[in-house]
Amino acid sequence: MKNLSFILLFLLIFTSCKDQDALEKANSFYNSGEYKKAIKFYNEHLEMKPSHEIATYNRGRAYEELGEFQKAIVDYKKVIDINPRNENAYLSLGKDYYRQKDFENAAFQFEKAYKLNTNSSQAATLLARAYHKSGKVENAMEYYDIAINNDNKNAEAYLYRGALKIHLNQSGGCNDIQMAKNIGYDGAEDLYNKYCN
């Protein structure tokens, strides 16, 4: 009986070490941009811990980087099943809808992320962009304002708020684009030269 306990303990430790090793390898490959290899080791890890939230999310991100969007969506939805408060999973789902030009559903997912973290400038910016694209300009302006209030270095929010102000013939658009330019946002200088010079 004593030997059986020892064998079970040894197997448990061995399995745990192997599982941790797979996760470390997966994360290492993910961080170096080797997404196919990362997926292989995330799969290995998830065979032992199928409800591991971070591994599932990272595997979804790896699928997304490879353009395997349907597999990524399955993982993001699984993450939400595991933890309905995972802001990143909602943001990633929203980005997929946005990529598909389904701006209503993108806004729905971004709003869920924003409600989980009202201090998130990123969630507010993405929500504003989805509203902007779906023609809900008042909502878009509100969330661009929130994004900038949450992070006054959010160049993307300044740029798109400025563009929206110019489109609506409101004052301050060029000031916003200038701010985006000063922060160093790509494309801000071209936009400034086109509309503000």
From TrEMBL:
Keywords noted in UniProt: Repeat, TPR repeat
PROSITE patterns: PROKAR_LIPOPROTEIN, TPR, TPR_REGION
Ranges occupied by TPR repeats: 19-52, 53-86, 87-120, 121-154
Record InterPro entries: TPR-like_helical_dom_sf, TPR_rpt, Ycf3
Domain of life: Bacteria
Protein name: Tetratricopeptide repeat protein
Protein species of origin: Marivirga arenosa
